[in-house]
Amino acid sequence: MCSNKIFGIRHLQVLLLFFALVLGFAMRVNISMAIVAMTDKRSEEPFDWSMQTQSVVFSSFFWGYIVLQIPSGELAARYGGMILITSAIAVNSVVSLVIPYGAYHGGWQGLCLLRGIQGLSQGCLFPTTHHLIGKWVPLEEKSRFGTLIYGGTLLGTGIQMVASGYIAEYWGWPAIFYVNGMLAAVWVMFYIFLGADSPQKSKIISTEERMYIQTSLGQTDGQKRLKTPWKKLATSVPFISLTVMHSGHNWGFWTLMTEMPSYMKLVLGVDIKESGAMSALPYFVMYILSFPCGFISDYGLKNNWFSINTCRKVSNSIGEYGPALALIALCHAPAGDVTQAVGLLTLVVGLNAGHLSGFMLVHIDMAPNFAGTMMGITTFFANIVSIIAPLVAGNILEDEYDFEQWRLVFYVTSGIYMVTNTIFIIFGTSARQPWNEPPDADDAESRPDPEVVENKSVN
């Protein structure tokens, strides 16, 4: 059975998830630009926060973020993804509206508390999105729709970087949080009326489209909830290497995310509007590159140019070794050369697009039945690293105007990119794991053949 509709309810769900990640990441990264305006000594009532204090503020989001990573995959499987993702964006909306008040009256400690609450609620965002993709997106469409949905993280980051500079310049930094909060509230209202946990629970989907999705996913007779093989996950060398890879990627991504606006302003001497546009450029490039990366991967797999394992590792190496080499080049670029520095930073972040068709999809390759839980586990550990990375950068940058200290930050980040990707290449795999299938033979027979599924998945 095939659904030939140009725009069906599954497409609507994909767009809603896309905008959820756009807004979620916009609210996640807005502090990177806002804090530049908040601590600008030329502004009225500037906050006198050192780089070390600012690094604590940057990391505070992840204090809460790690808490729900592992439980959220299980909660989504038990209660459905809709209530979790709606709650995540709703809480972030309310807290965004409160942040200016909290910063003025509670100082950096109050700001850290509020950012921690935002992180706590966003802890279920990735595992729940993985879960909903597994329910709504047919196998034949996972590549393009997976890229579109997760590309929302990059687009949200880029738009926020650009918009924040102009908003802070013309309306003041509090307006950054007010705009984010109001847009998120609008999304929540739309999702409450149009979203659903699955095709089976949607009241607006056609029978034809529902059967198309269920047939593709092998869920025509319903899907039993399987018991998570915790022991096998904990002792799986490929899964451990995947966790290491996710952690190394997060170190690089969040070091650059949190420190780049300050580097632009303090070392390169650009103003906040230009800093926002220049900081955003790499993420727009990364967003654009994510589509050809996904297309080439799928096209190559379809034509048997390479195995799925080779595809993932080559894509991931482009996304990790590429930025590592570009960071080394940045360390040897002339201090104060804005054009060369921005060009290399754009290359660093832009090449990161390879990870979207690299390790991000290995969760689904290895065990699609537990992809949400696996994403929760790797994200849990990766975001412990996300807490540490800005703190390490802050300790290195005793003098934030010293280019030599910035070089050290870039060298450390480059080394972590290289080491963790090498571990992933040696020990990682996209092969379907035996513990993905239920031990009961009857259950196993009711599911699609693993080899067929492997050839059709993913993005």
TrEMBL record:
UniProt topology in membrane: Multi-pass membrane protein
Ranges of Basic and acidic residues composition bias in the record: 444-459
Keyword tags: Ion transport, Membrane, Sodium, Sodium transport, Symport, Transmembrane, Transmembrane helix, Transport
Protein name listed in UniProt: Putative inorganic phosphate cotransporter
InterPro entries referenced in this protein's UniProt entry, alphabetically: MFS, MFS_dom, MFS_Na/Anion_cotransporter, MFS_trans_sf
Classification via Gene3D superfamilies: MFS general substrate transporter like domains
Main location: membrane
Xref: SUPFAM superfamilies: MFS general substrate transporter
Pfam families documented for this protein: MFS_1
Domain (Major facilitator superfamily (MFS) profile) ranges: 12-432
Function: May be an inorganic phosphate cotransporter.
Organism: Spodoptera frugiperda
Family listed: Belongs to the major facilitator superfamily. Sodium/anion cotransporter family.
Any one Gene Ontology BP term: monoatomic anion transport
Residue ranges of the TM segments: 12-37, 49-68, 80-101, 147-167, 173-194, 233-257, 277-297, 341-362, 374-396, 408-427
Cellular-component GO terms for this entry: membrane
Localization terms from the record: Membrane
Molecular functions (GO terms): symporter activity
Region ranges (Disordered): 435-459
